[in-house]
Design brief:
Layout lengths: L1 H19 L16 E5 L6 H17 L3 E5 L6 H10 L6 E6 H11 L9 E8 L1 E8 L7 H8 L4 E5 L5 H13 L3 E5 L3 H9 L5 E5 H6 L4 E6 L16 H5 L7 E2 L1 E6 H6 L1 H14 L3 H9 L7 E4 L1 H17 L1 H9 L1
Parallel strand pairs: 1-2, 1-3, 6-7, 6-8
Antiparallel strand pairs: 3-11, 4-11, 4-12, 5-8, 5-9, 5-10
């Protein structure tokens, strides 16, 4: 018995030493990731969120040594996907959510769903900053944003949006209130359907983040940008900042896509969130990622990494904006 015990202790000591050098995991310690990463996207398949996520995971997957699989749950301005992710997906780090923080935090503020931020989830890797714009089809009779506003002072102008709780929606409603124009926001459930509605004349104009519209090329014409810094001028034919045209003080309104994870993973599995954060940040250092991103037609200038702290500040700012413009957004929801 003594010989067996001594041999067993030596084997255990060897295992501990190997584990310390990272070669063999100790009993009870699980490799991570040990299976595919399962991603919930709270919008429809085929939209901008899927495009950005898949381009990103082409570079993130090899760093994590894992593949990604996606499920899409559109509905209720993103609420359906968030509730499914938070209530039905395992809290183990293998399950992630890829969301658009702007509209989805506005939805959160307006709808008061059965989950809490940041108690239940946190965003940890922002991919982009995508300014909201006003746009029309190329052959539209509206040549300038002043033309749209002038018409909206005569009649209610139909504005296609991806969803009512959205930074671009706030921009149009705030503009209408400031200049006395009537805009009727019509949600189409995603960026692509919104652009189609503008193209086929269902809507007079549209309001979306710039990346998808810029990728549509010459089929669309951008009339104004809800950002005073005007960083995307070359992608918009030098369309002006909305505030510069009308003397308004509408805040900069941008969407930002980000990866999110259950808060329990952050609280109880620090090694896993550390790996997710380290490897996702490393993607931005790869020039090939920017090249692949550019091939989608989206402006590479929209790529802007943001860590967990920055994401939290942005998310909370979106809640503040939603509360500030609650009366306008709520009125549109009731109509």
């Amino acid at each position: 018995m003594r010989t067996f015990s001594l041999q067993r202790r030596r084997l255990l000591a060897g295992a501990v030493g190997a584990a310390a050098m990272g070669r063999v995991p100790l009993s009870g310690a699980q490799a991570f990731p040990s299976r595919n990463m399962r991603v919930v996207i709270p919008t429809a398949q085929g939209g901008g969120a899927e495009r950005l996520a898949r381009v990103f995971d082409d570079f993130w997957g090899p760093l994590l040594k894992a593949n990604f699989e996606y499920s899409f749950f559109p509905g209720a301005a993103g609420q359906v996907g968030y509730e499914l992710y938070l209530h039905k997906r395992e809290k183990d780090g293998h399950n992630l959510l890829f969301g658009n923080m702007g509209p989805e935090m506005i939805m959160y503020a307006l709808r008061n769903p059965k989950y809490r931020f940041p108690q239940d989830y946190e965003y940890f890797c922002r991919l982009d900053v995508d300014d909201s714009i006003v746009f029309v089809r190329q052959d539209s009779p509206f040549k300038r944003i002043e033309d749209v506003v002038a018409e909206a002072k005569k009649r209610s102008v139909a504005v296609a949006v991806s969803r009512l709780p959205h930074p671009a929606s706030i921009g149009m409603l705030a503009l209408g209130k400031a200049v006395g124009a009537k805009f009727n926001l019509v949600p189409y459930g995603g960026g692509n359907p919104t652009m189609v509605a503008v193209m086929n004349g269902e809507a007079d104009c549209g309001a979306l983040p710039i990346a998808g519209v810029a990728a549509a090329g010459e089929r669309m014409r951008i009339l104004g940008i809800f950002n005073d810094e005007h960083k995307m001028a070359k992608y918009s034919n030098n369309a002006p900042a909305v505030n510069a045209v009308f003397g308004t003080k509408i805040p900069s309104l941008a969407s930002s896509r980000s990866w999110a994870v259950h808060a329990e993973v952050i609280d109880k599995m620090p090694d896993r969130i550390a790996l997710l954060e380290k490897t996702s940040k490393a993607v931005f250092d790869d020039p090939a990622y920017r090249e692949a991103y550019a091939k989608t037609g989206a402006p590479v200038e929209t790529i802007q990494y943001g860590d967990r702290a920055l994401c939290t500040r942005y998310a909370n700012h979106m809640v503040e904006l939603a509360n500030e413009y609650r009366s306008l957004l709520s009125a549109k929801r009731k109509s």
